């Protein structure tokens, strides 16, 4: 169902600031990435979102298009970011039908709860491949178009504004904060997100001279998202135990991630690259424990119990860490 503007965008942004710009987004049918794209479309952009699920991706594209009359939003399913050929075809379609790529959001990711004792090599590799290899693949394929956009739209380095209203050639990777401190049952994700942060930093260094910026947005616990459904039983029941540990005292909103996206892609982000923008209400500063606060540390790890009650849980024989 289409969202109301106040659910995905603050009122401070001027309509039309992204007119004729094109955003390409992996993971665009997800809760957070769809809100990011929806905000850009509302402000004038056209978009192409890709995902593995055909029906879900096409349905979300139609939903996002309601953000602005006359917008063009492509939804391309059956795209696996681990597969270069499927990604290349979707990029080619985006460029052919929408005219180029000015902004890239790399948001495809895998996540589930699993203690190291219950984390198989295949499960670990799957998250590495989706997060790190997938982000690398889409970056590699989109960069020629992003460089062309930066050359076309950005001003000379002596001016603090773009030459055509808003800049081009910008990348946002959707990361996390858990690798800043480490987090039980999230070893696979922590390693993957650390790799994405490193990728973003190196893209910023190598492509900054060509006018391309590369930044991280690291969401904290965001309410109403598929990601938190996989991490927290309390989140699904509307509990407040976790929110009390967040310095700002509440769960985040998808609108707050979308606003951060607009900030980095608009003129306000002209001199920001190689940075990590954490949008988490200060949660990572006090996040010792477990994702969502449902599984008490270290009791749950030592028990060898199965993760249950959250999306993506799989039944398997438990092995207590004390017996490894």
Automatic annotation (TrEMBL):
It comes from the Eukaryota. Keywords: NADP, Oxidoreductase. GO terms for molecular function: 2,4-dienoyl-CoA reductase (NADPH) activity. One of its GO terms (cellular component) is peroxisome. GO terms for biological process: fatty acid catabolic process. SUPFAM superfamilies: NAD(P)-binding Rossmann-fold domains (SSF51735). It catalyses: a (2E,4E)-dienoyl-CoA + NADPH + H(+) = a 4,5-saturated-(3E)-enoyl-CoA + NADP(+); a (2E,4Z)-dienoyl-CoA + NADPH + H(+) = a 4,5-saturated-(3E)-enoyl-CoA + NADP(+). Its EC number is 1.3.1.124. InterPro entries: DECR2-like, NAD(P)-bd_dom_sf, SDR_fam. Pfam families: adh_short_C2. PANTHER family: PEROXISOMAL 2,4-DIENOYL-COA REDUCTASE, PEROXISOMAL 2,4-DIENOYL-COA REDUCTASE [(3E)-ENOYL-COA-PRODUCING]. This is 2,4-dienoyl-CoA reductase [(3E)-enoyl-CoA-producing]. The lineage of its organism: Eukaryota, Fungi, Dikarya, Ascomycota, Pezizomycotina.
